# Entry
Amino acid sequence: KVERDLLAQGLADTEAILGAIFTDLMASNPADEKGDIANIYKVGLNTTRLVYVLGDLTVAWLLLRGAEVALAKLDAGASDADKAFYEGKIAAASFFAKNTLPKLAAERAMAEVVDDSIMELDEAAF
# Structure
């Protein structure tokens, strides 16, 4: 149950990151009254974050899906030879969900406040 809640929250965080990216993308249209082409940099600054978050979310979902199958096998009376394997699947999924998915909230917070100040620096600053 805890793991499913973490997955649901991770999905919500991922959706919010996508929302922030699309908001910045739409705000980069120079034809719009308040559009500023520089907002496109914010999109770029969040793309790597989005790829990592999508990867973590997908791996968690796959592991939890496997854990559900393992739980069903254990409930059905798995053989002693298979029992440890199924228990390992469940433990790995739980560990990953509890130790990885909460980090997506931090990624969301960073995506929502990203600015393009780094892009305004003169090249000589590097």
